Fold these 3 entries.
Entry 1:
Amino acid sequence: MSLPTLAPTAKRPGRDETPRPGRRPRRGARRSLVRSIPLLPAVVLLAIFLLGPVISSFYGSFTNASLSGSTAQNSNFVGLDNYSALFADPDFPKSVLLTLVFLIASAIVGQNVLGLGLALLMRTSNRLVRAIVGTFVVTAWVLPEIVAAFAAYAFFNDTGTLNAMLSAVGLEGPNWLYALPMLSVILANIWRGTAFSMLVYSAALQDVPTEITESAEVDGARGWQRLIFITVPMIRRSISTNLMLTTLQTLSVFTLIFVMTGGGPGTDSSTLPVLAYQEAFQFGQLGFGTAIATIMLLVGAAFSIAYIRALKPEVD
Amino acid sequence: MKKSLLSALSLGAVAALVLTGCSAGGADTESKTIKVAYQKFGSFVQVDAHMKAVKKEYEAKHKGVTVELVPIEAQENDYATKLALMNKSAATAPDVMYEDTFRVQSDSDAGYLAPLDDYTSKWTEWDSFYDNAKSAGLGSDGKTYGIPMGTDTRAIWYNKDLFAQAGLPVPFEPKTWQDVLDAAETIKAKLPDVIPLNVYSGKAQGEASSMQGFEMLLYGTKDTLYNADSQKWVTGSKGFRDSLAFIKDVYQGGLGPTPEQALDKNVGNLVSGEWLPQGKLAMGIDGSWLSGTWLEGGTAPWPEWNTVMGQAPMPTQDGGKPGSTSMSGGWTLAMGSKSQNKDAAWDFISMALNKDNSQSYDIAASQIAVRDDVSKDPDYQAANPTFGFFSGIVANTHFRPATSDYAQISTAITVAMEAVMTGQQSVDDAADAYDKTVVGIVGDKNTESAD
């Protein structure tokens, strides 16, 4: 990329890192402390509503707390028992695999590629088409999750819309939710989440200067070449931000799967959030369920760190 | 600078106000209101009707006390989860709750329930309750935690019209499991549009799967779930595998509903509300309360039900003694340990289960009476023609293991059932996985291997 960028190490005038002569560094430290006071409420709220649950989740995963029975009122510290039981449980690797399949297929590939595709197509289409397509796509995003989940259930159900449409053209569709549970929930999540990616990419594409694409066109670059070598690199930061957001959102999808398949049949669509819910609230093993939730937390954190790292060199 | 400090302070103050607002919840009004939590789901509305009637009666008698009804619309296991979560916090814990007998032990161990011995000792009507019913409300410490509302038994309900159309003998008198499967095969061959046999199975049905489904089979084999003498859970038994194989034969052999129908949380409502009345299901292993749905005032009134539907005792596996088997449970009213007004809560319980109210509930919900004066009442006996049949099979009935681990083991059973009915695991693999889960729940020393 030949755009003039500031070197990351360039110092801005006035923002001195070395103290000016005659000024004690302590004063600066105190000043920044006072200046950060307005952040305090936000920090306190974050600590209460985010850090608190995270810490209690960590602690809970080391206990044998349960929903009923004597361990409900006197739970004991059991060390890593929950984790060793979890790693010995054949449901767990299956659930991790399902979660990854769901994540990669529906968020990383489905929502992102489709969202970018729609954004590109809408840029070149006329206003009417843009309005109609935009409305349809965004509707799925506007629906509350439970409503979207019921709509998807009605669509994929054995006697639902999809099979009714298929039988109208003489095809007999499978029982989607039972025979192809993962495909159904992946399609439903793509349907629901694409609008978000589309909006992010539409905004990003507007920032791509037309002069650059035009000059590439003059140099003889074809459509796909312009996309790969000009457009995608220029919206790289939007892509990684969007990837991070959709990844974290999809990792925590629960309602959609729970309503559509209940994690079943058997454990064929039990992703980690569904498995955690089942263990904690259906089987009453709060400690064990919390251990799964904690692992989810770590997976999410790992993904965020990876994406943030990918973003870093682009800071300007 | 000053301004930002000020706004920060005011923001903090607002946050603090919001937070304290969340935690303080009108504690002083608590004692004048008693909260009654119970299940209301699909066709099961009889407790709701009962509670509404008792609320009216109670509020008329105790001026100034309000009864707040909290119907929880959820399937059985979800109801138990929601109730346990409510019980965890004093702000939401109910004063009176509708409690399954098999959860009394684990919930009293959890500290959710209040002992009632001080109240029952002064309650003259307590002597009218049968002793075995009283023992169903005992906690592991021997104290009474639940007052029984009624009990139940389970058997095969079958549609006489469909049996006649398929050329099967009526009355249906199966002697072995094979007789039941043979009848189902005949119906499958003769009446392809009819579901031959429903056995509740899988996680979605929760306790109904393990009790109406699995244990109706297992207790008819030579093995058992729990050895009450040694107080150990039985693993690796042949009866367990045979019972799973029966479930597999029904679902993988096309003799039952499709697995996806059976795994729908609503299937219980479908069976009583649609499949049986509309002649879409020929046989179902189900409870004595089933006809409550079809009575006048039920959710699916069906005046002809008694001429169409027949009942047959569930046979043992090979016809071995005593020839038939059944399972019994029942529900109680229990008091929340976090209740602010225990006396008022007790007044509500004792009113809800006095002679007249017990009787009206037992009739409406088709319950087998647990009070001597109710079961001898001619009005009760005449109210439902199946009461005689279902009281008759009490002789061969079984009760679930009375331990606080049962609730967790019950879900392990439903997991094994779902694995074989969907074909995801073989019978042996599912049984082995169950054995491992049981050892995980109760520990090695509390299990014993069957011979």
Note: The mean pLDDT of chain B is 88.
Entry 2:
Amino acid sequence: MQSTLEIQTQNVGVAPGVLSKVDEAPVVISLDHIHKTYTMGDVEVHALRGISLEIKQGEFVAIMGTSGSGKSTTMNIIGCLDRPTKGHYFLDGEDLSQLSKDQRADIRNKKLGFVFQGFNLLSRTSALENVELPMLYAGVETSERHRRSMAALAAVGLAGREKNHPNQLSGGQQQRVAIARSLVNDPALILADEPTGNLDSRTSVEVMEIFQRLNRERGMTLILVTHEPDIADYADRVVVFKDGKIKSDYRIESPRNAAEELKLLPAVDFEDDDDDSETVVNEVAEQKEA
Amino acid sequence: MNLLMIIRVAFRALVRNKMRAALTMLGIIIGVSAVIAMVSIGQGAQQSVQEQIASIGTNLLFVSAGAQNVGGVRTGTGDTGTNTLTVEDLDAIKREVPSVSMVTPTVNTRSQLIFGSQNWNTQIQGVSEQYPDIRKWTVQDGSFFTDADVRTAGRVIVVGQTIADNLFPGTSAVGQTVRVKELPFRVVGVMARKGQDQQGRDQDDTAFAPYTTVQKKILGSPRVQVAYVSAISADATYTAQVQIGQLLRQRHKLGPQDADDFSVRNMSDIADAANQTNSIMTMLLASIASVSLLVGGIGIMNIMLVSVTERTREIGIRMAIGARSSAVRTQFLIESVVLSLTGGLIGVLLGLGVSLLIPSLLGWPTAVSTAAVIGSVIFSAAVGIFFGYYPARKAAALDPIDALRYE
């Protein structure tokens, strides 16, 4: 199946001047001296101690740090799941730091896409219905919902798998359904929290390939939380957290190219174990290549 | 997100757990069908009482000694030793009240009827020769006794079908002689079969003799317990009732402050009393049945609470991708209402089925009450809202971060 993806991404490569384009791009996320303090009994825990960060449109940022470094708290604040104790958070120029629960739900629905480590798909629900879910809450009408879900599933290489339930899909496929779900409301930003944490190395490369493709082809802004340095290497920029502060923030001049790496990996290692549709797709792909 | 979509989401969630949904609904199904079946039985009993009363005739009045108060406190009845109603009173009613056409006193006693080696314990009613016309009851064999028999206190007797079947199996009862308290009575007639009355008593297990005979030769007392009076028409019933009352007060020399020492009732009074008893029974049965509705509702609440805990992660996912708390709350509330309402509708069908089967299985009449059907459907929806609200609120109050982390 990813042979198809290879074809689609073959000519893309790393466009020269991406970074300079990013420099001119508008700011999507701006964190301004964000503090977060939790009270546990009598003890105050300072999870974040004044984080300031700007992310521009089209950037692919990896957030790294050990557990307890504050990266998850930052993710929750950027993801509008939590509010900062102090400081301001701007998304597309809008101050979100003091929004109500419902307003944050609407922002999550329309402006943000989430991809989790544990996939977080609804069980006993088809891939198509899972992808349709955010549009259901956005009030998108049935035919449009269907069209966009099919397109999103096709974009992550799952055309023909729409009716499958999560338990009929491999981990990599489930994560691709989750990516499709994060895409359908055309968000300003996709947040991926350890998206490869539950996947083997080959599937991880496949997932990173999709992320890179979304970033380069669609100019999608991506934030990726990970503690694996080799996964962070697929991003353009790395922000390292330590003890509730940003320890370092640097650009990667030549990120790893997942599409190129996939070509070099042996196809026998293919994780999908089941039916004939794979072979059919592969054959078609080979014919196209020929 | 509009309501229709939330309803679809709720339906999908229930379909995913078919077995559990079915078992949860069972409580409501049993509750609703029990309520409907019970009310049908009650209504059926009420209807059959009304039919019987209509068949007796609406121009019938009952005059009894002692005061009787339907639904009130005074429940003095004719056979507690009061001597306030006499044959002379009844003669006066017949003579002086123009709206009255026929009168018969009844003097009741129980005794053994002996024929040869057979004997039978039964009720003997002392009545006048007009009794069959007043009660619209025909004589099947022979004839009823005459006013000459009444005047002379003749030892003649007319028996019901049950007595005829038991004392004279295989032979004709008419012309035979039976003994009552050592006195020989000649059987002159056999009444037509009448069946059970509204209290389930066998009306055919009765013998009739002239009231004069019963008073003088069996009881040795001149008192009259109850009299049946027939008004000239159904419309004249009320007039007759009032006039009888006035006449008896005058004859008994009652002052304006004195309470009646007799009572005059018409069939609708009797019907009211019977209906009152029946509706109390119906209410009782229905309220016992609605306890199971309540239990069913608690079952729904239990399952919804389990469901909220079990689906914490699902709730977290929904919230993370943009479901507002209100959407989550509505979803769970609708799931609970769908459970109870579907259960209610199935219960209605089951209850109707049971109501249709009861007459042939148990021999009780039933009448389906539309009010009970509509009421129990509304009630089951209310049960769903009431018992679903707390679990739904719990689901909506979850924090998405914690919910997503829930294992």
Note: Chain B touches chain A at residues 1-2, 5, 9, 12, 16, 313-314, 316-327, 400-401, 404 (CB under 8 Å).
Entry 3:
Amino acid sequence: MAEMIKVGMADLNICHSPNAITTLGLGSCVGVALYDKTTQIAGLVHVMLPDSTKVRQNQNKAKFADTGIDLLIQMLAKEGVRRQSLTAKIAGGAQMFAFSSDNYMLRVGERNVEAVKMKLRSLGIRILAEDTGLNYGRTVEFFPATGDFVIKAVGKPVRTI
Amino acid sequence: MDDIQFDVLTEIGNIGAGNATTALSQLIDTKVDMNVPKVEMLTFTEFSELVGGAENLVAGILLSLEGDVDGMMMFVVESKAAHMLVNQLMGLGSPSDVNNKDFSDIEESALKEIGNIIAGAYLSSISSLTNMLITSSVPYLAVDMAGAIFSVPAIEFGKMGDKALLIESRFTDLDVDISGYFILIPTLESYNKMLKSLGL
């Protein structure tokens, strides 16, 4: 029986086929799934903040887009996965509340998505698909056997990207 | 965050939640009992698992703070409990189904108003305690998965450390048991200002 590995907020993990990996209720956070098709190994990081260099309390690497993605790549490398063979799928980064003001603090979802994209671009990792932004929460599941990234939201049909 | 700072935030939370509960009681014209609020430091994962798990449907009412304190304040209840509160406030002859996922426009307004009033009571007690002027924005409402709603305050706490401070108040209103969560998130700067004005 295949297992579903759970990743918490500001957390990360890796997963081998036929198992799958999930994170529940992404809001303004971003779920970044990295995947190597050949070995069918995937990793998932639940990023909360865009930039570790802007925050003094930055010990927890999984919390940030920059250090979280780096750490995930290191974990995958230990399994023999090369960075060059990785592709990415990302989801989340919603703006949960419809603020009228453009308060910087409140637009963190958008900034998280931008930071993730910038980090992946700098590493030369291609984003194959994304389901980001808008105003609702998402639960995501990644299946390394197929490369499917399944996205569930309240009151919406299940989407596979 | 050290022990003293934790104690201070705890005390602020206790006082704020007490006032907010009184305001809620007056608003829905029902005797509302409140237990001693539970104050905890939680990891982000624990935080997002509150109120019945990360995927449970909840209503979150959020106000951004202005004045001497920048930050946000949030009030979270289970969607079902939110329906109960609204039904009680509006005194509907045929209350809407508490299991309904959606809220009508007028129910949303009522819910925001509930959030507004109790948040106001919460904030005014903090205001007088710290001698600081705290005003709040209009209330914003979102009904979604608990994990997604809690991600908003969690991210703010994330800038300060790896844990989030939560004040849980359980209201008991006649035959229904309603759990509500108050979350106060001053920005790091404002938080230091608050501590300073309290002489810490």
Note: The beta strands of chain A are 4-6, 12-16, 20-26, 30-36, 41-47, 86-92, 126-132, 138-143, 148-152, 159-160.
